[in-house]
Structure formats: structure tokens, C-alpha cells
Amino acid sequence: MSRGSDVFVTGGTGYIGRPLVGDLVRRGHAVHALVRPGSENRLPAGALPVAGDALRSETFARSIAPAKTFVQLVGVSHPSPAKAAEFRSVDLASVRASAEAASRAGVEHFVYLSVAQPAPAIMKSYAAVRAEGEAIVRATGMNATFLRPWYVLGPGHRWPYLLLPAYWIFERLPGTREGARRIGLVTLPQMVSALVRAVENPPRGVRILEVPAIRGPASAGRDDGLPE
């Protein structure tokens, strides 16, 4: 996909959404971002707000075109085991609404921010909802990219830095290497860059980007189809 394309984004005023929208605008894309009425001023300059409800496709479905790429970022902030009900009422309901609306609007590439699979048991309900979201998108037949981070380090999300020494060890031990890499930590700039690369390089079929690929092709140790 060349720069200057139309992209529709949900969750564009959030932790990951705002820097992503800003980057896409700076790279020449026309970004249409779904926002709650009254939140338009939280979008980066240059983005086009679409007032609506992420849980009700009828409030934004007619505003998706002419975008051929749809980025789904809506989700409960600061996920925890105590938010299992919210994962279903917000995360799952929003991806269902978005996938339905995007498919009907003729979207060619659906980008979905999922989560590492399988995930630690403590976050089983969160991982299950994201896996169900992936299945909903697959069922539409759209080309799709599923990004599967575990934790995205950034402002207000820094406590896992304390775990970095343990990750360093586990990623070097044969018995724990695979799991440590799958649920490794990524930074906010890495996450945003991976999303931008996904938007600008749509796949044919379904592409899954796990933590090594999100960190960057050089860290993945394999060809994930995305340029640096």
C-alpha cells in the first residue's frame, strides 16, 4: 500500500492509537478515526474524526469508505483478571461490530491488535476473548494482520521493566526460550512501528505477527514479510 491511502481506525484516542494515528498522518495517510462524541479534540492534528459508538456498527459503518484498511484497537485499558466481564462486553463486542462493518464496506485489510497466544493462565479470559476476536475476523474472509504483543511498555506502563533481567535469562535458556519470546515485552514505539508496517504492507490471507516480529524484522530471526 502506498502512502496517501485512506485508513479507518478505532481506538484512535488511546494509549497506542494516538501515536499510531499521528504517525499515519505524518506519513501521508488520510486517517478516519472513530471517537466518542465530544472526544474529537483528543485526536492528533490532521486526523478526520468520526463520531460514533465502537460497540454499534450502525453508528460508523457508513463512514468507513473509502478506506480499504481498518485498524481495530478498541479494548479495556490496563487489562487484569478482574476485568473478564469487560473483555466480553467491550473488546469482543467491538471487534464483532468492526469486522461486520468493515466487511460490508469492502475493506481489503483488517488489522487487529490481539494478544500473545497462548498466554499465562492468569490472563486466560483476556487471551480467550482475543482469540475469539481473531476467529470473527477470519470468518469474514478479509485479508488480515493479527499482532500479538503481551505487554507494551510506555508512559504509565513501566512496571514490567523490573522483569527485564528475568526475561534476559529465560530467553537464553532452551527450556524457557520459546515462551519468554512469545510473552516478551515490546516498547510503545516498536508497537506503533509494527502497526504502521502492517498498514503499509497488506498481506494476502492472514498474517500473524508475534513479539519478535513486532520488535522488528532484525529481532525476529525470520522473514515476516515486513520491511524495516
Kindly summarize this structure in a few lines.
By secondary structure, the chain is an alpha/beta fold. The chain has helices at 17-26, 84-104, 124-140, 164-170, 177-182, 188-200, 211-215, 217-220; strands spanning 6-10, 30-35, 48-51, 69-72, 109-113, 143-148, 151-153, 185-187, 206-210.
Helicity, as a percent range: 25-40%
Number of helices: 8
How much strand content do the residues show? Answer: 15-25%
Q: Architecture in CATH?
A: 3-Layer(aba) Sandwich
Query: So what's the overall shape?
Result: globular
Lateral strand order in the biggest sheet: 3-2-1-4-5-6-9
Count of individual beta strands: 9
Written overview of the protein:
With 228 residues, this protein is of the alpha/beta class. The chain has one domain (6-151, 185-220): Rossmann fold, CATH 3.40.50.720. The chain has helices at 17-26, 84-104, 124-140, 164-170, 177-182, 188-200, 211-215, 217-220; strands at 6-10, 30-35, 48-51, 69-72, 109-113, 143-148, 151-153, 185-187, 206-210. The strands form 2 sheets. The protein has a 7-stranded parallel sheet with strand order 3-2-1-4-5-6-9, sandwiched between helices. It has a two-stranded parallel sheet with strand order 7-8. α3 (124-140) links the parallel β5 (109-113) and β6. The longest helix has 21 residues, at 84-104. The two termini are 15 Å apart.
